[in-house]
């Protein structure tokens, strides 16, 4: 049973930084694509960043140059470093991972999800 647990959310001022963590149990992230999504009140869930199984990355345009996705050497924790945060980054952030290796899922086809962590950026 794969479980993902996010941590690191909180309240930060405009321009501040946070680092989110997503720790896996049941298996590692090795060979599996993992992504960070977010959902703001009244809005649809959107992908923020993705670390593909081949170590390539994807960022949505609104976070390019500000957010960085990475993985620890043990490949059980994935991070989202968020710098220069803006009020519009306020959302619940979720990590998700693919259900099979060597595959990049469509955004609505991730099998395993964490419970989410709240990020609030005050102006």
Describe it for me?
The protein is an all-beta fold and 123 residues long. Helix content is 0%, strand content 47%. The chain contains no helices and 11 strands. The protein has strands spanning 3-7, 10-13, 18-25, 34-39, 46-51, 57-59, 67-71, 77-82, 91-97, 112-113, 117-122. Strands 2, 4, 5, 6, 9, 10 and 11 form a 7-stranded mixed beta sheet that branches. Strands 1-3-8-7 form a 4-stranded antiparallel beta sheet, with no helix packed on it. A hairpin with a 5-residue loop joins strand 5 (46-51) and strand 6. The chain is globular.
In short:
The protein is mainly β and 123 residues long. Helices cover 0% and strands 47% of the residues.
Write the layout of secondary structure elements.
Elements (H helix, E strand, L loop, with lengths): L2 E5 L2 E4 L4 E8 L8 E6 L6 E6 L5 E3 L7 E5 L5 E6 L8 E7 L14 E2 L3 E6 L1
Parallel strand pairs: 2-11
Antiparallel strand pairs: 1-3, 3-8, 4-5, 4-9, 5-6, 7-8, 9-10, 9-11
Number of strands: 11
Tell me the helix content: under 10%
Mass-distribution shape: globular
Oligomer type: single chain
Q: How far apart are the termini?
A: 40 Å
Runs with pLDDT <50, length 5+? none
Q: What string gives the helices and strands in order?
A: EEEEEEEEEEE
Strand content: over 45%
Q: How many DSSP helices? A: 0
Using only CA atoms, what is the Rg? 13 Å
Query: Major sheet: size, sense and barrel closure?
Result: 7 strands, mixed
